[in-house]
Amino acid sequence: MQNARFILGESPVWQEGESSWYCVDIVGGTIHKQDTHNNITTQRNSDYVSNIVCSQRGFLVSQENRVFHTCKNFKHDKVLCTIDQPTSMRTNDGSVGPDGKYWFGTMEKHPSGLNGKIYSVDAKGTLLVQGEDIGIPNSFIWLDSTNLLITDSYLQKTFKIELLENGTLDWKNRKIWLDLSATKGTPDGGALDEDGNVWLAIWGAAVVNQYSNEGVLLKSIKLKALQPTSCAFGGVNMNELFITTANEGMSANQLKLYPESGMLIRLDMDVKGRKLPVFKYEEVKC
Question: I want to staple 224 with a disulfide (CB 3.0 to 4.6 A). Which of 59, 109, 255, 260 is the partner?
Answer without folding.
Answer: 260
